[in-house]
Amino acid sequence: MTVAADARTAELVAFFTEIYGVAPEQAVRAPGRVNLIGEHTDYNDGFCLPMAIERDVRIALRPREDRTVRVASVQEAGRVSFELSTAIAKDASVPWADYVKGCAQVLLEEGVELVGCDLALTGDVPLGSGLSSSAALEVATIHALLTAASVALEDERIAQLAQRAENAYVGTNCGILDQLSSACGMEGRAMLMDCRTLVLEPVPVPDGVSVVIADTGKRRGLVDSAYNERRAQCEAGAAALGVSHLRDVTLHGLRAAADAGKIDADTLRRCQHVVAENGRTEAAAACLRAGDAKAFGCLMDASHDDLRAKFEVTCAELDTMVGIARGLDGCLGSRMTGAGFGGCTVSLVRDEAVEGFVAALEKAYAAQFDLPVAVYVTRAADGAGRLDI
Ligand code: GLA
Fold this sequence. Notes:
This protein has about 400 residues and is an alpha+beta fold. The chain contains eleven helices and 13 strands. A hairpin with a 6-residue loop joins strand 4 and strand 5. Helix 2 crosses helix 3, helix 6 crosses helix 8 and helix 7 packs antiparallel against helix 8.
């Protein structure tokens, strides 16, 4: 779907025109995402239940006659220019541009015939807060480069290539959740995502409830090393049980492996979260299909509690934000969202209580932490695509 022009797009077009001296020809966008449940399951071939959010990365573009790509950002300092090749150099002084370069390189490695282009981007997905600002930038970049070259690829393929850019070029070992959510989001729908088959089942967000995201203001410092460590523990657990992914393991099988001394206590707890979370996520999708927001909220709570006690990826800020939210009127469930170690929580709140909920949450959290708190109420947005200019 093409999204209509608005003030942010107008600002982007003006920015493009000012720096390149000519107006852009086209524009694309890709949203961030919030994961409602199904955390640290994607790289275990499991289930997630995300939705795309109303915040996005937008890129205005104009094809060039040569093989140069120039990029500038409304928010970030530094202009970047590189030649299209399969060995594009990184530049540590302009880290945001690595996402753009990585996408170009991966497309070229795939044999896509790209053309040079001028790009200008703008984004309002908060950075490093677990709402997939990186995936939004990657997916938007791939759409921009393909649009400039008049090439079309399937959304699932775009998500896989964006993930590869992040894994192989940027160097973060993420799963497919973020990129697939951004590429394939569906307006008004959450998506039950099967990370083994990449099949997405749209499930309605029930009437009468809102999705409320609360940013703790804590940025995820150690996320890469801790994320990779959790991933390695999951892989070790699966290997000890003789399967390639924890998707194929039961809680009973895990317990038996621990009793037989095949996995240690830490690995057991990590794997127990993943296996239980897969079950919770399928159950949560069933709740949405049945319109049972209350039962959905209970599963969100259980998810957070396992992420805290068994997977150990929460922190004082996330636990506090969740604890406050659960005590407020109209809150049906609350949990951390994304990789953890900081970033955002997501809560399901009855519509009539949202205003009071937001104000009380901000106030109570600010009384405990000297961090900038931000709360967003969001609907499920459409996935990446064209933008009117
Ligand atoms: C990050 C990663 C995703 C996923 C989540 C945890 O957002 O990028 O691939 O693993 O953490 O569910």
